[in-house]
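Possible regression after last week's pipeline update?

I re-ran a chain I had predicted before the update to compare outputs. Posting the input and the new output here so someone can diff against the archived version. Not blocking, just want to make sure nothing changed silently.
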Amino acid sequence: MQAWFGAQLRPDGDVRAGLAPLLLASLRASGYGAVGAGFGILALYTVPLLLLAGLLSLLGLGRVLVHPAMQWVRTLAGLERRRLQRLGHDVDSPYAGPDADPPRSLGELRADPSARRDLVWVFLHGTWGLIIGATLLQMPFIAVRDATYPLWWTFAPDSEQRILNGFIETQSQGTAVLGFATGIAVFALWLLFGPKLLDLQARPGVHYLGPDPDIDLSERVARLTATRAAALDAHAVELRRIERALHDGAQNRIVAVAVLVGAAKREIPRDPDRAVDILGRAQDTVEDALAELRAVVRSILPPVLEDRGLAGALNALASDCSVPCTVDVDVPGRCPASVEATAYFVVAESLTNVAKHSRAESASVEVRRRGNTLTVTVVDDGRGGADAAAGSGLAGITRRVEALDGSTTVTSPPGGPTEIRVELPCGS
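New output (post-update):
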């Protein structure tokens, strides 16, 4: 509220700039709230059907109804999970896959905690979620209707001469002005609390539609074990790469410098001009060694990330690419250093592959952060056929991403285009 009243004291342009994000967030909340209200209506009508199926099953007459009823519940819960994921919530399905069979009897239902959690969500969303969704959907319409009520109330029939969704009867000019006040009040409440109402509507789904904490613990331990192994493997590969780069590059050049300096030292008494020539070659070799050392350092943690941020670093990569490349970065704030370094490596390796192998005429890089997930997408219009199993740089991308518990998807049909999509968890 302090931010709201403070905005009233700013110049008109600043007020509009401050209201625009609130308006967009509230419109988004009403849109997703309306979708949630639609799911709430389906859940509300599902509740009596579930009660009927349960009662008939207890009587031994409706056991065949349990499986289709739970199949419908799972479908409805899956739709809600997709909505929650679009809202930025990390809600994974607790089921092994699309072929996981729903319970076929009450006994199986009692033994399946994930199915029971789906049922709890159906009851909550069919009441709580439906009410909040209907409120979010009605608030902007009530605000517009009531704010304009003094303009048209005299033309409306007596039954329509009401404000605040029909709760207050206003049949005189004095009370009609009250409609304008209620409309502005509802609009302000919608701007301020619309997104919070959406969060309240989503809370039961976030709590109940994910994997059961007790059952998911062993799977999570196994996944973290695999992730840790991938991280150690990626670390070992990176150390071997740095060792090879230092041994085959900078170290050999430094040895060559030592040999050249020794030769120059021997030539000084006999042929000073030749000694100067040898020292010049030694100086060139030192400069090459320094350049290789800088390249190794940049490959460990590029300084450009610290200096210019992820957007600046990726634009620098695109400008150095021989294939015309566009960059679109929408990442508010900074991500953890390890995430930014991995995203930088993914784009660098992908653009290297584009330049060397794809025969593409153009490429694009898109980076988005939604919730706690950073998504990196690199697309080119080349010949396609990229295969991570063939020993290309894609295998290195996959290893690095898996080390951060992320995922890599490569779509590259013969003839193109090629799309590399990486999702990296980046914390709260």
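Follow-up from reviewer: compared with the archived run. The radius of gyration is 32 Å. Marking as no regression found.
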